[in-house]
Write a structure and sequence with these properties.
With 182 residues, the chain is mainly alpha-helical. The protein has 6 helices and no strands.
Length: 182
């Protein structure tokens, strides 16, 4: 983007904030689950507000139906992530089933995003979302195994990847709705 105006900049900051919150509250939720923290319920409730916040930003552009669909799929993504961490911790025989559902959900998110914006492709979102899942599971596993330095390094990679998804989202939306920002 060569020269952006104030509305575009505010929009970019809003998308970046949503994805940063997704990353940060996911980290806090996984940590709370693994350590049986007394704040687990309130942290997960805050994490589950993230899809609602995405809905608020996406609805003016994509309408209620598509924004709701994305928010519902993102909620499912987060619930499955929590289920996976709990299974990794206490119920290993459930891990593969939950992991399969988690990847199926990511595929649904990718298909939706590829459908609603001509500057996004299902295949690119699928690659990014699948990487997102691998990285989230990796940093959770490192924490479960008390590999704290590796856990931090894995989270750093996860966080950078989340910001790439944010960039892909705002760039596609700015291209699709360029007239809305002028």
């Amino acid at each position: 983007m060569n020269c952006i105006n104030k509305r575009e900049l505010e929009f970019i900051k809003e998308i970046l904030a949503l994805w940063a919150q997704h990353s940060e509250w996911t980290l806090m939720a996984i940590t709370s689950i693994i350590f049986d923290s007394p704040n687990e319920e309130v942290v997960i409730n805050r994490l589950l507000r993230n899809p609602e916040d995405f809905y608020e930003v996406l609805e003016p552009f994509y309408g209620d139906i598509m924004a709701s669909r994305f928010a519902n799929l993102l909620t499912e993504h987060l619930v499955l992530a929590a289920d996976l961490v709990n299974a990794l911790k206490d119920n290993p025989e459930m891990v593969e089933d939950i992991r399969c559902r988690w990847y199926r959900n990511a595929d649904e998110i990718a298909r939706l995003l590829g459908l609603i914006n001509p500057y996004w492709t299902c295949s690119k979102w699928r690659r990014m979302l699948f990487k997102h899942l691998r990285l989230a599971e990796a940093f959770a596993t490192k924490l479960l195994n008390n590999q704290y330095e590796e856990y931090i390094m894995a989270y750093d990679i996860y966080e950078a990847e989340v910001m790439m998804m944010a960039e892909m989202m705002y760039e596609g939306m700015l291209k699709q709705f360029c007239c809305e920002f002028r």
